[in-house]
Design brief:
Elements (H helix, E strand, L loop, with lengths): L19 E6 L21 E2 L20 E6 L14 E4 L14 E5 L3 E7 L2 E2 L3 E12 L17 E7 L6 E6 L14 E7 L5 E10 L5 E13 L10 E3 L6 E5 L5 E7 L5 E4 L6 E3 L6 E9 L2 E9 L1
Antiparallel strand pairs: 1-13, 2-3, 3-6, 4-5, 5-13, 6-12, 7-12, 8-11, 8-13, 9-10, 9-12, 14-15, 15-18, 16-17, 16-19, 19-20
Length: 311
């Protein structure tokens, strides 16, 4: 008899109508290569996985409001073949198991790993956001899963998805089957939507950890989203704001400070992607992709941040 252990195992997705989408990973931006992925490294050692030519993509760089992701392989305590024999992992548009992806036409699959597969998404900067919620959709193919996931060994399948605060090491689970036989959880054969709020996280990374050992065993990941409320800036306490906003090509500062020390733009990953000449009165950012950014304006010992939208 299957056990219903949803309480405490994961949070069900709750729509927050007032939330703003911050950043996503929908796996729609990368090309799809059919066939299997072959790991060319030694399966008895832990190592990062790389993209191979004409094989399914397993890593991607962040792009505008799309999360990047990287993959890592760790063997069992008693190493097996790992991904050296060719397995179905990475971005796919194969819907034979799922019927359709939760969002769009592509997703990320993890099957027949014969070891441990870690999928780590880009670090997201959240200093300017509140009530941030992380969402992830998961499909677990109906199969015969073994063990309770507590042993680093074959026949001990598990799937864990959590949000990590890289500054403090704190983590919050969306899903963790460790300690349970997946077959007894009534979570197979349909899309499940997981979410959790991450209060107090100034930075966050979503991490997926998977272990399975048969081609009939497969985990599909799709529609990852960070959503939250942008912190309200009291412009009565701020001397300058960008105008116009949204920005097409050029912008200036309304109430430009007389002693402008620094002006720069960060993307939603916290990376500085543009610095302006403080001697100018008009700046151009026409080269930036459309999307959400954060403009930082520094005057003497005070710095403030404003959300800007690039058309």
């Amino acid at each position: 008899m299957k056990k219903h252990v949803f309480s405490g195992l994961f949070f069900l997705l709750i729509q927050t109508g007032q939330a703003q989408e911050l950043i996503v990973a929908d796996f729609e931006q990368q090309p799809v290569f059919t066939g299997l992925y072959f790991d060319l490294e030694d399966p008895s050692t832990a190592h990062p996985l790389i993209n191979n030519p004409q094989e399914p993509i397993i890593n991607a760089e962040p792009n505008n409001q799309q999360l990047g992701f990287s993959s890592y392989y760790t063997p069992y305590d008693d190493p097996s073949t790992g991904l050296s024999d060719g397995d179905q992992v990475g971005i796919t548009d194969d819907t034979d198991s799922v019927g359709a992806f939760y969002e769009g036409n592509q997703g990320y699959v993890l099957s027949d790993i014969d070891g441990n597969f870690s999928l780590t998404f880009s670090e997201v900067t959240l200093e300017n956001w509140s009530q941030t919620t992380v969402y992830c959709s998961v499909f677990i193919k109906e199969s015969t899963y073994e063990g309770d996931g507590t042993q680093n060994a074959a026949n001990s399948d598990r799937l864990a998805i959590y949000v990590l605060n890289p500054l403090s090491g704190e983590k919050i689970d969306l899903l963790d089957t460790t300690g349970h036989d997946i077959d007894e959880l009534d979570i197979e054969g349909r899309w499940l939507n997981f979410s959790t709020q991450i209060p107090g996280f100034n930075r966050a990374q979503l991490i997926v950890e998977a272990r399975n050992n048969a081609s009939s065993e497969a985990f599909f990941i799709d529609d990852i989203r960070f959503e939250g409320q942008l912190s309200v800036v009291d412009h009565s306490e701020v001397k300058s704001v960008a105008a116009p906003n949204p920005i097409d090509q050029y912008f200036s500062l309304d109430r430009r400070p007389s002693d402008l020390k620094e002006i720069y733009i960060q993307n939603i990953f916290g990376r500085i992607i543009w610095r302006g000449d403080t001697r100018q009165n008009i700046w151009t950012i026409g080269h930036l992709n459309s999307g959400l950014y954060f403009l930082n304006i520094a005057e003497q010992d005070k710095t403030w941040t404003q959300k800007i939208i690039k058309k």
